[in-house]
Amino acid sequence: MAQAVYIINGPNLNLLGSREPEIYGTTTLADIEAACASKLSSYDLPMSFFQSNDEGELVSIIQTARLEASGVIINAAAYSHTSVAILDALQSLSQPIIEVHLSNIYARESFRHHSHISQVATGVICGLGAQGYEMAIDALAKRIKP
Ligand code: DQA
To answer: What pTM does this model have?
Structure first.
């Protein structure tokens, strides 16, 4: 069996469902995790699903992914716009990386228009809500080396 797809979620995404539902919808992170598990099982790919509010912990998870993941899906949330440490960690990976945002970051405040992560991402999906994670899995499944 292939190595796990790492799905990494950043700060405040643990509050999905109740946090600004007009922007992020009412789907919870547990709902997203269940949908991702089901989608990945259709590809026979294992999943490791994470959420952390802590930048350093996210860096450590990415360092583990470097050794153990077949691919990475990351929604680094606000750290996408600020974290050179997360960019540096992702830069050390050779696996495909798909960046996901639930909201359309380009239709929001200008400080959200730039993501440090996009420059190292294979692809970027934003504005499609929880569906973006499932689309990212489809894209990764085609790119993961057997
Ligand atoms: C987000 C967009 C970010 O700008 C924001 O800070 C988030 C969530 C999204 O999924 O739309 O926390 O990454």
So the answer is: 0.97
* 88 Cα to the center of ligand 1, angstroms: 20
Q: Per the structure, how many domains does the chain have? A: 1
The string of pLDDT tens digits covering residues 117-136 is 999 999 999 999 999 999 99
Beta-bridged to residue 75, according to DSSP, are 9
What residues contact 97, with CB distance under 8 A and at least 6 apart? Answer: 71, 72, 73, 74, 90, 117, 120, 121, 122
For residue 8, the domain's CATH number is: 3.40.50.9100
Atom from ligand 1 closest to the CA of residue 78: 6
- 98: domain range? 4-144
Question: Is 24 a residue of the active site?
Answer: yes
The angle that helices 131-143 and 29-42 make with each other, rounded to 10 degrees, is 30
Q: Say whether 101 is catalytic.
A: yes
